[in-house]
Amino acid sequence: MPDAVKTPYSDLPPRAFWRTGVADAGIFGLSGLWQSKWVLPADARFSTYGSCFAQHISRAMVARKVNWFCPEPAPGRTPAKLAEAYNYGVFSSRTGNIYTAAQLLILTRLAVGDLAMDAPEFWPDGTGFRCSLRPVIEPVPFANAQDALLSRASTLRAFRRSFAEAEVFIFTLGLTEGWEHAASGQPYALCPGTVAGQFDADQHVFRNYAYPEIRADLERAFALMRAVNPTLKILLTVSPVPLTATASGDHVLVATTYSKSTLRAVAGDLARDPDIDYFPSYEIITGAPTRSAFYEPNLRSVVKAGVDVVMGHFFAGLNISGPPVRGAAIRDAEADVERDMAAEDLICEEMVLERFNEN
Amino acid sequence: MKTDLPDVLVLGDSHSIALADGCRALGMRVESLYLSGNLWHAGRVALHAQHGFWVQGMPAAQKQILALRERLGGRSLLSRDVPVLASFGFHLGRVVPLFSLHGHMAEPKDFEANSNALYASQSLVDGYVTAFRGQHLRVARRMGRLAPTTFVLPPHYSTWGNLRHFALRIAARLQAQGLRVYDPALAFDPSGAPLEQKWLTSAGNHGNAEYGQAVVGHMLDKGLINRRP
């Protein structure tokens, strides 16, 4: 009998075959889904942004004590409810959800000074203003135009730091659909009039960004970031959360598949760059093995068990075994402030006690 | 029993000491109750139906309150016929350093001058004030219904913008509740500059007796407090 003919598939590992890699393994038996391209320093800083699914990454990093970089934290000791209401601790800075590549690009241009800080619109709301780039970042409108502008500038300072001073910028691609200003081309975070602002059919136009535009916007945004930080690594993911609604004219199921497929293709192609990687959160949640078990009954929101599986694969593939780059431990600023306050308290106490003794 | 009521009751934290000294220096009849800013900050000083104020778990302070009541002819510390100068509710040294821990600035000029600073919007600062001073503001509102009260801002001793900003925001919240608030800083420097060292104690964060006298003098001139005939 002749020897079996060798083919390119003959020596592939089990993970390369659907039966052994997926069907037999089942949801909780999947392995080797992702292995980071990079050996990162043990104290590598990770910045996280993107659509709503991205917030799970930051939470998981904090829970695992991985170095999630947050250059725009809430003021010290802000109560959790207040911090949450003001959208602190969700992404590395308070950009709100970045659904589209166009949004990422405009934020990056603003952060590096490629666009004037006051160029994007502010929307009047009652006696105050909303920022068109992050219309619901605070529970009430900004008190006045200056308040709104300074808050935007503050977030963009922090956004700049989150790529200037991090090792890895993690970005979760969310949507291809978005809205722009007809004349200026400014992208919006949300369709004006849905949550804030007022819709004007003459000024606000629907865009379903195609592969070439998305890729070009991402490439330009990453180039601007790398001009500031040439060693920055980019890790892309695609959100598995379907569209809430589509303005494309297609059925929302069809529109979702178009949107996610396009984003997945862009991410995959960009990841050919040695400094860009792709992590398959989209596949883990939406793949056939799950039979949609990782979705809530609305078939949209992802359940915690799904997030846990995603993050389990993330941490399994992450390699932070490199030597640390930041040396000495960070000084505990809060402890320093506590000490100063205690010293001041002592002065106050002594003044009061001195008088008390006179009575 | 006939009681010589004081012209004013000075009530508050360590900043009230200079105010009481100032009243005495100007020949006013003064009663006072000083309680550590830490007690006020921690919310341990509460309104009391009978005594006016009470401090849970602090026998020494309770004794002070009872003795003061005695001197007021058995009145509550808060009564319609004893005006109160109040210096509580601010306790900025317990709030502002923590708020500023990560570089947040509430003053636009401070944010713009420091490229590492973060900006805190007006509504965020209000939320922070509510979180840490909401209870004090509620006490102040109820107190204002029980006694004619004037709140006096702490001395403006520092160029640190957040400190002054929080003082003014808390003052604005007190005023919004219908309370009378006096800001001594403007009498010392209408431009809003911090006090000169000569008005401060050696630690530099409290007004001295001369400062207290000047403040009370300004308040008398404005008719915010009066000597009894």
Low-confidence stretches of chain B: none
CATH fold group of chain B: Rossmann fold
Number of helices of chain B: 9
Largest sheet properties of chain A: 4 strands, parallel
Taking the alpha carbons of the first and last residues of chain B, their distance comes to 20 Å
CATH class bucket of chain B: Alpha Beta
The low-confidence parts of chain A are none
Helix/strand order of chain B? EHEHEEHEHEHEHEHEHH
Brief characterization of the structure:
The complex is a heterodimer of chains A (359) and B (229). Chain A is α/β, with parallel strands linked by helices. Chain A has ten helices and eight strands.
What does this 3D model show about the protein?
- The complex is a heterodimer of chains A (359) and B (229).
- With 359 residues, chain A is α/β, with parallel strands linked by helices.
- Chain A contains 10 helices and 8 strands.
- In chain A, the strands form 3 sheets. A 4-stranded parallel beta sheet of chain A has the order 1-4-7-8.
- The model of chain B has no long low-confidence stretch (mean pLDDT 94).
- Chain B has a single domain, classed as Rossmann fold.
- By secondary structure, chain B is α/β, with parallel strands linked by helices.
- Helices cover 42% and strands 14% of the residues of chain B.
- In chain B, helix 1 packs across helix 9 and helix 6 crosses helix 7.
- In chain B, the strands form 3 sheets. Chain B has a 5-stranded parallel beta sheet with strand order 2-1-5-8-9, sandwiched between helices. A two-stranded antiparallel ribbon of chain B has the order 3-4.
- The chains are: A alpha/beta (359), B alpha/beta (229).
- At the A-B interface, helix 5 and helix 10 of A face helix 3, helix 4, helix 5, strand 7 and helix 6 of B.
